Amino acid sequence: MKMFVEPSEVFLHRDFVDFRKSINGLVSIVEDELVRDAYTGTLFVFCNKAKDKLKILYWDKTGFALWYKRLEKQKFKWPSKLSSQEFELTYQQLSWLLSGYDVLGHEPLHYQSPI
């Protein structure tokens, strides 16, 4: 079963979210903190502080849908060291995140020759 139909974009919200928030609270974060239009079909991914739960919010042309996943034993590899408030994911990276992989991988190293 496919969860989403060709999302135009996928954005990961870097900061942890209070999971008592439901659709209205998450839409408020999308519009106020991320300064994005929540009504575009874009997927917005949120994580709780314990990193064992994810919520994905999106507009599906008839209303908002909220997808929720809870891990029983493991933690999501959440990229909390991002400098920006959001990070754009590809659909493949979203699949990796949901499967337990680190979507950012290693941080790039920047060296300068001493010459």
Task: Please provide a brief summary of the model.
By secondary structure, the protein is of the alpha+beta class. The protein is built from 2 helices and 5 strands, in the order βαββββα. The mean pLDDT is 84.
What do these coordinates show?
This is Orphan protein putative transposase (IS66 family element,Orf2-like). Helices cover 17% and strands 23% of the residues. It is α+β, with helices and mostly antiparallel strands and 115 residues long. The protein has a single domain (10-99), classed as SHC Adaptor Protein (2-Layer Sandwich), CATH 3.30.505. Strands 4-3-2-1-5 form a 5-stranded mixed beta sheet. It is globular, with a radius of gyration of 15 Å.
Q: What is the fold's blueprint, element by element?
A:
Elements: E1 10-13, H1 23-32, E2 43-47, E3 53-59, E4 64-70, E5 86-89, H2 91-99
Parallel strand pairs: 1-2
Antiparallel strand pairs: 1-5, 2-3, 3-4
